[in-house]
Amino acid sequence: MATIISDVKRPVERSNLLKWLRQNLFNSWYNSLLTLAALWVLIRVAPPLVSWLLAANWAPVLTSPALYFVGQYPAAELWRPAIGVVFISLLFGLSWGVWRGPLRTFALASMAGYAVIALLPVSLDTLGLTGRLFFAANILVVILGLAASRTPLGKARWVILLGLLAFGTFILLVRGFPGSELLPQIQTTRWGGLMLNLLVAAVGIVASFPLGVLLALGRRSNLPVVKLFSTLFIELVRGVPLITILFLGSLLLPLFLPENVRIDRVIRAIIGITMFSAAYMAENVRGGLQAIPLGQYDAAKAIGLSGPLTTILIILPQALRLVIPTIVGQFIALFKDTTLLIIVGINEILGIGKSLVLGNPTWITAQIEVYLFIAFVFWIFTFAMSHSSRRLEKALGVGER
Amino acid sequence: MTQLRRSLSRYSESGIPLWRDIRVIQAVGQIVSAIIVLGFLYFLIRNMLDAAAARGLGLGYDFLSNSAGFGLDDTPIEYDPSMSFGRALLIGLLNTLRVALLGIVLATALGIVVGLSRLSTNWLVRNLANVYVETIRNVPLLVQLFFWFFAVFQQLPSVANSITVGPFAALNQRGIYLVALRRGEGFAGWIITVAVAIALSFVLYILLHRYRLRTGRRTYPFIVAMLVLLGLPLAGWFLAGGSPLVPDFPTVGRFNYTGGTTVTTNFAALLVGLVLYTAAFIAEVVRAGVQAVSKGQREAARSLGLSGLQAMRLIVFPQALRVIIPPLISQYLNLTKNSSLAVAIGYPDLFAVGKTIIDQAGRAVPVFVLVMVTYLIISLTYSILLNIYNRRISFVER
Fold it and tell me: B199-209 in b/e burial notation, b at 16+ Cβ within 10 A?
């Protein structure tokens, strides 16, 4: 009796699994040994780890999660940082519509994040119904931004302008104005938490951008004096640890200024971070400048552009496009480096964890939990940023030219 | 006379107006930028000098010979509080170099293992390495250092309940106590046989290797060299009579362990944190370097009959080194600079000692200049090494 070929079932499923195992785990004697060793370690480590995570004392984290994000910012004024979150959601939606690709991932990730917070299965005192609704509403704000990108507003330059505007507004909003009824000034001593990390890193990267471009141009300049000053600054700053620069800002800067000039300590930290970041920015931009073929200079000269015009109209736009992924990478590094502010006595998220949470005698035994939580927060942010930066690199085609 | 008049006129010799002459613009630009920068520096330094004079702060370095008056936990060379500030700073520098050198060695070893694991054909090993790199790189170093120091090493059991590894090591919240080797009888004679063994094995390896290359005969240079390297000292041990090296075990006393060598928990936490963090970056450097070697090299090596491991060791890795070494050196520099975070977990490195001196003696400016110049010299050393390497490989064109 003939068998109809199409009726024969392919016995693939099991053998596929076996084949996969053979190819990926047991393809040679030493790989088999490695697999077994790795499995043994996993079996020894993973179950105790999971049971520890479930049994750990998460009270220091769950009692007041807001502390980690906004520090000791007055509770009645929390709506101000909240508006910052709305700004960010709106910008995510807009840039999703304008640039698509990698920024879509980012916007989607933030929406997922909001959903997770809104539906968090633990009851938190600081996250009441209003809080949950706020985060749920932010999902809608992202979509609103996406819709707005279909309007004439959806042009790259408008979004960038809007972003800078929102950034400035946010800083003024958080700071408030002295003597104002509606927006009383909040001293920077009350700023803190992750908000401060993000703020300092963002101000640092934005402020160091023009400085870095100038330094990079200065270092490539054919004017010896300008070149000398730029090179000296870049190499001096890059040659010492960030912590020395931060101390320079916080401890020594007051000595170098006239008696009557008093600068807020957060601003002093930002000055230090900006100086540090500018030196690295300069080197990144210089890398981009070096990648521009000499023919571009010749062509610009041939159509009669002067030196400065060549730089502004021809060279910089191309060079800066090349270094966008590097700048994202620098922002990530700077964001991680903002934890150093704890050493100059500013309560960023690590400082909150160490002095405010673990300084509380009832929670002093929960060291592992608190530091793990802080590590997790950083991990989420930097992983998302580096992931989208890698996609950005692909989208821009950097390295494929 | 005409010359003077011409130079005073609004036109330069070439007939171009002064304000459009590129040489004039450049010269003026340089002078203006020099005046701005130098003026700003003058303003800062003038203020500092005024403040120093008003508060009676000295700016000289004569205080370095004054007695320090503070204790230090980790002292590689002899130190007590009656010794000078200069001595304390020297200890800080030695501590920085100690943690940096040890960290570089360990991070390189771990980084190479993890980097190659990321390229492994073994799914489990590859993904474990991926998880390690992605976890470590995305968490700030300072958070990791705090975790290791406050959450791990400070939570170790008390002296009475120390974790012990036989008689060789003990671990408690005061520190880590390891067995040490001290000189015993016949040490001098034995150490000579060790030196001879190292030299002889080296020479033998080279000679046998050359002989193999010349004649094509199997000479087993590695095995012979290892036999000499291990055999001679072993023979010397018995010939020396008695024991040239005596183990000094840490023993538990009334309050703490004595004997052996002690490693403070601050140092251990800093080292563990720096090594794990830097190794993740080195792993990426190694991976990128190996991937930069074209696939054909590996395939050619395999088709010549080399095993996978041999192809990696003899063909791929040596070529990858050209790509790996420059970023590797900058990772070493990063590790060294990052070791200044020691100040947050109480390890007396250069920066921490400098800060203590500023707190105690108030000589902020001179101490700061000294500390920064020292870091600059360290960085400069790394860049010189990097330049030497780049110059050496740039001539060997493929």
Answer: eebeebbeebe
Contacts of A46 by beta carbon, 8 Å cutoff, 6+ apart: none
Tell me the two tokens of residue B162.
């120390």
Backbone angles phi, psi at A26, to 5 degrees: -130, 45
Count helices and strands (H / E) in chain A: 18, 0
Interface mutation vs chain A, best among B24, B47, B127, B138, most A CBs within 10 Å: B138
Strand order in the sheet with B175-178: B163-165, B169-172, B175-178, B261-263
Supply the DSSP string of B16-84, one letter for each residue: -BGGG-HHHHHHHHHHHHHHHHHHHHHHHHHHHHHHHHHHT---SSGGGGSB-----S--SS---TTSB
Q: Is A158 on the interface with B (CB under 8 A)?
A: no
* Cβ atoms of residues B189 and B241 within 8 Å: no
CA separation for the pair A100, B272 (Å, rounded): 41
The dihedrals phi and psi of B171, each to the nearest 5 degrees, come to -130, 120
Per-residue pLDDT of chain B (398 residues; tens, 9 = 90+): 555 555 555 565 667 777 777 788 888 888 998 999 999 999 988 888 888 788 777 777 878 888 877 888 877 888 888 888 888 999 999 999 999 999 999 999 999 999 999 988 888 999 999 999 999 999 999 999 999 999 999 888 888 788 888 788 888 888 888 888 888 777 888 888 889 999 999 999 999 989 988 888 888 888 888 998 888 888 888 877 667 788 888 887 777 787 778 889 999 999 999 999 999 999 999 999 999 998 899 899 999 999 888 888 889 988 898 889 889 999 999 999 999 999 999 999 999 999 999 888 878 888 999 999 999 999 999 999 888 888 887 655 54
Q: Long-range contact list for B77-81, CB < 8 A, 24+ apart?
A: none
Long-range contacts of B227-235 (CB under 8 A, 24+ apart): B228/B197, B228/B200, B228/B201, B228/B204, B229/B197, B229/B198, B229/B201, B230/B197, B231/B197, B232/B193, B232/B194, B232/B196, B232/B197, B232/B200, B233/B190, B233/B193, B233/B194, B233/B197, B235/B193
Smallest CA-to-CA distance from A198 within A79, A87, A90 is with A87
Enter the ipTM: 0.88
The answer to whether residues B97 and B267 touch, using CB atoms and an 8 Å cutoff, is no
| H or E element that contains A278 | helix A265-290
Would you tell me which residues 44-63 of chain B have a C-beta closer than 8 angstroms to some C-beta of chain A? 44-45, 47-48, 51-52
Q: Using alpha carbons, select from B178, B356, B371 the residue that is nearest to residue B258.
A: B178
| Structure token pair of residue A170 | 């946010």
Give the type of residue at A377.
Answer: V
User: What is the spatial distance between Cα A240 and Cα B377, in angstroms, rounded to a whole number?
Assistant: 9
Record the tokens describing residue B203, joined without a space: 């020479």
B181 backbone dihedrals φ, ψ, rounded to 5° = -110, 125
Burial of B80 (0-12, 13-18, 19+ CB in 10 A): exposed
Contact assessment for residue A350 and residue B146, using Cβ atoms and an 8 Å cutoff: yes
Residue ranges of alpha helices (H) inside chain B are: 2-8, 22-55, 85-117, 123-137, 141-146, 187-215, 221-240, 265-292, 295-303, 308-310, 317-338, 350-361, 364-394
Closest chain B CA to residue A386:
B138
Q: Contact A239/B379, CB-based, under 8 Å?
A: yes
Residues of B in contact with A368 (CB under 8 A): 147, 151-152, 155
Two structure tokens written together for A68: 């980690």
Task: Work out whether strand B175-178 and strand B261-263 pair parallel, antiparallel, or are unpaired.
Answer: antiparallel
| Count of Cβ atoms closer than 10 Å to residue A282 Cβ | 27
C-alpha A373/C-alpha A93 separation (Å) is: 28
* Burial of residue A192 (number of CB atoms within 10 Å: 0-12, 13-18, 19+): buried
Per CB-CB distance under 8 Å, the chain A contacts of B308 are: 28
Residues 6+ apart with CB under 8 A from B197: B228, B229, B230, B231, B232, B233, B236
